[in-house]
Amino acid sequence: MSALKLPARLRMDGAHAAWTQLAPALRAEAAQVLAAAGREVRLSAAPLTDFDSSALSLLLSAARQCGEQGAVLRLDDAPHKLRELARVYGVAELIWPPVAA
Prior knowledge:
Elements: E1 4-5, E2 9-10, H1 12-35, E3 40-44, E4 50-51, H2 54-68, E5 72-76, H3 80-89, H4 92-95
Parallel strand pairs: 1-3, 2-4, 3-5
Helix pairs in contact: 1-2
């Protein structure tokens, strides 16, 4: 299954619209992944180039929604600045949970 993708721009003024589009796609992807006996819903952040802290809120909502369905969100190709922003806000481990050994 191919990963869903974040938009190139994710700022406060467009976060609600982005979530409105992403939420049903995440639900559908999670249902497909779980039906195929998988657990990870993949979301690519590669297109993301222009963002603010609202991107973190969207990602936390996405992770929570996946968790409610019994799946795990995996964010791929996150820009370094997004990872740093998540670290500064103290939410990095919620978006990128440590891998169990």
